[in-house]
């Protein structure tokens, strides 16, 4: 399996506070990798380092073959990113957003036009194509934001809490888009606090207090902890961490 993300003892400290500590793992091409943990566990801090947005305090990491210390611009050109806020311009139309982001990604005008028409057709949003993004339904906006994040066919797409605030049916439809992207060979790195979404991932890591405390497939983790759901796995990890702190 081709490794597209590799980290060794990656750390980020703010003074004496270690927001992320000894982060070590590998992610493979076409894998859906879940990065789970409660709010404040260090997920976003780790993701920012991997996206080239924050320089580590120590450790090593490569993303799409590029070093997080010295090649941050190359990393940014080879990844996609979507946050919970969707990363779209509300006062532009759907097609204007696609044209804008396609230009940022360095795509040609002809490629942008062709892929925009294809995307609008595939998503079934022809009726929204020339409408302002702020006027379209939340579920469609979410699907569009993900499609924009992979518009340039990146090696990896980072999704930071992408399904927050949407209904369960829309969440499930969104995961169908993730499966399709992974089938195309795009690696999906997703953070979430919805433990049921861990079941959709090929492998997951679980962070507690800035450290990865578990990393495996959902099935193996449930067997390891002798439980039936990922909620129970996380509860057991948190309980162990609390006992250790006491």
UniProtKB/TrEMBL annotation:
Keywords: ATP-binding, Nucleotide-binding. GO terms for molecular function: ATP binding; ATP hydrolysis activity. The keyword Ribonucleoprotein does not apply. The keyword Nucleotide-binding applies. Residues 5-234 form the ABC transporter domain. SUPFAM superfamilies: P-loop containing nucleoside triphosphate hydrolases. InterPro entries: AAA+_ATPase, ABC_transporter-like_ATP-bd, P-loop_NTPase. This is ABC transporter ATP-binding protein.
């Amino acid at each position: 399996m081709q490794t597209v993300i590799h980290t060794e003892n990656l750390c980020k400290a703010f003074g004496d506070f270690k927001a992320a500590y000894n982060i070590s793992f590998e992610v493979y091409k076409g894998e859906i990798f879940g990065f789970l943990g409660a709010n404040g566990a260090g997920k976003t801090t780790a993701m920012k380092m991997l996206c080239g947005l924050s320089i580590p305090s120590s450790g090593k990491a490569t993303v799409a073959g590029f070093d997080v210390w010295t090649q941050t611009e190359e990393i940014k050109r080879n990844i996609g990113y979507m946050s919970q806020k969707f990363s779209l311009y509300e006062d532009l139309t759907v097609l204007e957003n696609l044209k804008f982001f396609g230009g940022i990604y360095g795509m040609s005008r002809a490629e942008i036009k062709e892929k925009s028409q294809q995307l609008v057709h595939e998503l079934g949003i022809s009726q929204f194509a020339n409408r302002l993004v702020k006027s379209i339904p939340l579920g469609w906006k979410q699907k569009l934001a993900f499609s924009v994040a992979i518009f340039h066919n990146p090696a990896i797409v980072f999704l930071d809490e992408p399904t927050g605030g949407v209904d369960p049916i829309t969440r499930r439809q969104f995961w169908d888009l993730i499966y399709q992207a992974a089938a195309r060979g795009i690696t999906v790195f997703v953070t979430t606090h919805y433990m049921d979404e861990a079941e959709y991932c090929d492998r997951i890591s679980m962070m507690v207090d800035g450290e990865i405390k578990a990393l495996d497939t959902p099935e193996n983790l449930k067997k390891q902890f002798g439980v039936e759901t990922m909620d129970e796995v996380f509860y057991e990890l948190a309980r162990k961490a609390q006992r250790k702190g006491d």
